[in-house]
Amino acid sequence: MTSPSSAAGDRARAVIAGIGSCLPPLVVTNTQVIARGNLDTTDAWITGRTGIHRRRLAGPAISTGDLATAAARAAIDSAGSAVPRPDLLLLATTTPDRPCPATAPEVAHRLGLGTVPAFDLAAVCSGFLYGLVTASALLRSGTCRAPLVVAAEKYSTIVDPFDRDTAPLFGDAAAAVALRLGDADEPGAVLETDWGSDGGGSDLITVAAGGSRLPATGIDTGIGIGTPGHGDRCFRMRGRQVYAHAVRRMTSSSEAVLATTGWRPEEVRAFIGHQANQRILDAVADRLGVPPRHRLGNIRDVGNTAGASVPLALADAAARHACAPGARTLLTAFGGGLTWASATLLWPDAPVRTAAPEPRPPLHDHQEVSPP
Ligand code: UT7
Question: 239 CB less than 6 Å from ligand 1?
Answer without folding.
Answer: yes
